[in-house]
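Field reference: sequence -> structure
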Amino acid sequence: MPRFVASGRSARYYRVGITENANSSFTSPSPCAFEPMTVPALTHPLTPREAECLRLLARGESSKQIAHTLGLSSRSVDAYLGRARKKLGARNSTHAAVIATTAGLLSES
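Structure field:
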C-alpha cells in the first residue's frame, strides 16, 4: 500500500513511497460492474422552471448562461437547480440533469 513520506526536515512537498511488499498486494483488475440507473419516484414533480433549468444545463450551459437565457438572476437559477436536485435525489446538478434526461422528464414540449 502506498504511503506518504516527507523528504527532509522542513519538507513542503511529499513523494509517494512504496513499501517493500507492494507488488504482493496488487491483484488483477476486476471488471467494473455498474448497476443500471434507477429513477426515483417523485413525490413532488418538477416545476416547469426547474425542468427548463435542467434542460438548459443538460445542453451544456452554465448557471450564468441559463440566467441570461431565462431572464433570471444566477441565484434564482441555482435555487431552481438545487430544488430539482433534492427532488431527484441527485448528488449534484449535473447528476440531476442525467437522471431527469434518463427518466424523460426533460422532453421538449
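Note: The chain has five helices and two strands.
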